[in-house]
Design brief:
about 220 residues; mainly alpha; two-stranded antiparallel sheet; elongated
């Protein structure tokens, strides 16, 4: 389980945005209130949960540099460590800020195609079918939005055939989608495409000889 560097930077920026100040009474027998923050408390809680003296590979907390520990964790921490920190940090936010932060984090994971989301304070992994359907929908929308409407329709037919178990028809329509893209890009007209056309006709023929006439 890995997280892209771009995603890590955006996650860090998100947490910094919702890193509000906190007043913490560390000793129940003492009325003294310490000035702290969401990041500081999450770092301290993480050390306690993992039994660490400091963020691994650093002496940031020992030196009183909690934010340096936070940045090190964002850049170099493992994905499970990062998720632990995020869950802890959100636990210190008020409900309004927590929900805004949750939505932003899920947007970041979605943008970078990471199969993880957070809900009710915990991360969970999306199953492969969900991710496959989402990526398929994104691909179809991208085709339709970039003057490849014909390819988008053929792609949708290919997905339907494959879902219904029609492997040969699925191959046929997928090939048609590629052909439509090539036509739209001007790669077919005015070029020597005998071999290309022959290849498409051959693949189309896998779905049945009656379909090859459509080429």
């Amino acid at each position: 389980m890995t997280l892209p560097e771009d995603a890590r930077r955006k996650i860090a920026t998100c947490i910094e945005k919702y890193n509000t100040s906190l007043g913490v009474q560390r000793d129940p027998n003492d009325n003294w209130i310490s000035n702290s923050s969401v990041v500081e408390e999450a770092i301290l809680e993480m050390l306690s949960e993992h039994g660490w003296d400091d963020i691994p590979g650093t002496s940031t907390v020992h030196d009183g540099k909690h934010y340096d520990g936070f940045r090190h964790l964002m850049r170099h921490g493992s994905a499970p460590e990062l998720f632990d920190f995020l869950e802890l940090a959100m636990g210190f936010m008020d409900s309004g800020e927590r929900e805004k932060c949750r939505l932003k984090l899920n947007q970041i994971f979605d943008l970078h195609q990471c199969p993880w989301r957070i809900a009710d304070g915990e991360f969970f992994k999306l199953d492969a079918d969900f991710m496959g359907e989402r990526l398929s929908a994104v691909a179809r929308d991208a085709l339709a939005a970039n003057r490849f409407a014909g390819a988008s329709d053929e792609y949708a037919k290919a997905r339907q055939e494959l879902a219904a178990g029609g492997i040969k028809d699925g191959i046929f329509y997928a090939t048609r989608a590629v052909w439509c893209c090539a036509e739209s890009l001007g790669l077919i007209q005015g070029c020597r495409c005998g071999r290309l056309r022959h290849g498409f006709t051959f693949v189309g023929g896998l779905a049945g000889s009656d379909r090859t006439s459509r080429w």
